[in-house]
Amino acid sequence: MLHRILFALLGLGPLLIVLHYATGLGSTAEFVLAAAALVPLAWLIGESTEHAAEHTGPGIGGFLNATFGNAPELIIALLAVHEGLTDVVRGSLTGSVIGNLLLVMGFSLVAGGKGQADHHSGLVSMGVIAAAIGLFVIPAAMGWSGEPERHAIAVASIPISIVLLVVYVGVTWMALRRHSAMHIASDEAVHGWSLRLSLVVLGVATVVTALVAEVLVGSLEEFAHKVGLSDFFVAAVIVAIVGNAAEHGGAVIVAARGKIALAVEIALASAAQVAVFLVPAVALLAWLIDPLALSFRVVEIACLAAALAVVAVTMFGGRTSRLRGWILIAAYVGIAIVFFIAGDRAG
Predict the structure, then answer these.
(1) CA 170 → CA 156, 184, 199, distances in Å?
(2) What is the pLDDT of residues 67-83, one digit of tens each?
(3) CA nearest neighbour of 275 among 33, 22, 99, 20
(4) Within 143-290, where are the H helices?
(5) What number of other Cβ atoms are within 10 A of residue 274's Cβ?
(6) Terminal Cα-to-Cα distance of the chain (whole angstroms)
(7) What's the predicted TM-score (pTM) here?
């Protein structure tokens, strides 16, 4: 049923593009339509990468999932860099990590109830996120006084980004080796899409996503102003949720089907992937457009650390329950309120 709805909503992307260039839609309508259009597009990118991975094996499949699974967020971030919306870029990235940790995990536990998660895998993902937050502090602290966008911070962000990518490659390699038997055992993929169809769909979906994301970023500031929200809040909460919406829904559905361990792994692995793959990838690719300093604000670092701490305490021992899910959701609401109060960076 959900797949049919998402498939039907795929028409929103082309419709938005036509309306954007052919009519004078207002910024609020454009932002709302673009946000809605990104959800089925993110789902389609996920579907096509999954089908392509079935033909390429776990190694290339993992690379495809990492690269294109984050395509909507990556495209939004790079377009925001081009528009000079650096706080929007950083806000959407930290919001994505927090959203996966608290919102996705929370709703997954509420849907799945009591169960047991993979303790080892969870510890690895949380350890990776903790390491990333620790490294983020280095360039971030440089921006807590003086000009946060200065070139020296952007330069200092390069080695941090390289280290994070090395960590990502190492952890991904170990995870692939650990799960290789599971990948080989699930040999049901022969009935999926052909590799050619998967890559064609992936390419088309990515192009449409880029066009829709351009509309989203172009209308973000005016939308935020009209509805009385800060650019930072819109990026850290609304854009972050939209960019991950299809993945979020997938984890909840998996949990509702009784596969709570898999749902928890999706949430934690997604958060870790944003922290050690997407953030450094955006920081390095931004040099092709305009250097980006990883000068996260104090409120962003504090909320990242708080979100991780809540998950670590709530998920202690790998046990899951609906109550723990509601605790995580409540924590997310609390952080969203903090982001709302924080507003845009002063000056």
Answers:
(1) 22, 21, 26
(2) 676 778 888 889 899 98
(3) 99
(4) 151-185, 195-227, 231-233, 240-256, 260-273, 279-285
(5) 29
(6) 48
(7) 0.84
